[in-house]
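Supplementary Methods S3. Complex input for the zinc ion-bound model.
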Amino acid sequence: MNLIELIQKLISIPSFVDNKTNEKEIGEFIFNYLKQFPYLSAEKQNIGNGRFNIFAKDSAQPKILFACHMDTVEPKSGWKYAQNKIKDNKLYGLGSADMKGGTACVLDVLRDFARTRGLALLFYCDEEYNFEGMKRFAEKYSLRPDLIICPEITDLKVINGCRGIIEIYFRVTGKTGHVASPEKGINAIDGIINIVSLIREDIKKYEHPGLGNAALNLAYLSGGLNKGVNEKGNLVLGNRGNNIPDIAEAVIDIRTPSKELNAGEITRLIKQRSEEQRLKLEKLEIRSDLRAAFSPKEKIIGFEGIDYGNLKEQGYFDVQIISERFDSPFICFGPTGGNVHGADEWVNISSLEKTKNVFKNLIQRSCT
Ligand SMILES: [Zn+2]
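Predicted complex, serialized as structure tokens:
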């Protein structure tokens, strides 16, 4: 199998996660593929439901760790091209860009070596869902590689960090009353809007020269007259115009560039701002508390002469979890591609060869 055939093989094995499908079958393929390299030993780490991570390494202490997620998002409708169609230097398929193209580069480059010293490979589950694969790997293993590389599409640029994610749900109560005298009530919807704008100001001071500013998205807001809770635990809300709404709930998502700006700090701000608005904070749930990561250029070996990308445009990469845990710098580096998480996802074919060559030089230099 050449590089392109290998990507096509990976694309031909569905690895999105729902009740019937998961990463098991693609995991078996990768696990068996690795057996052809006598210098590597591979093991499975079960994460439940038949799903498993694969960790492979040679006999030396890992210096370079490649981290590749095996799952994709669920298929979307509206595809114009068949899976694995090649046209105009583009290969189309679910996962072609995110990230079976990059994974195939890692798998294929192994054939160029008869042995390595200090090479480790992780193929893991659940990156597009709940980061379960990465969390479980971080719990079990303890390594200290010089560099962790995640072959996501980056347009052949080095991406040396990402902002973290804080997602919080909260609910506040105010005081109802007749709209004719609003000063007698406490409007819970207005209150949440005020809380959110104040927190937007509060977090402005968290700025990182590489990662940029903190960004707050008010993702969900609902409120009205409190008529209790239904059997599913959801609020029942009155929506008549003549009542001051006395209950409201919201979900906020904050992209944080700094370790100091975390779910604990946002919780403190929500409490403080709610009190100032004379609102009672009824409920607060932290749904995500993932840290930012930044790997200084001087710590990144083997990518000299390659351009660095703009970190301010990047989403979160779960490889941050092991970068923090192992205290090892990480980067993302991979081919060019597009339509990620949508129809007609593609990867640029010539950028795949280039990606593989960068990996080859790196392994030659660090692991032989
Ligand atoms: Zn990805």
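The helical segments are 3-12, 24-34, 96-109, 132-140, 188-202, 263-276, 320-326, 349-366. The chain has a mean pLDDT of 96.
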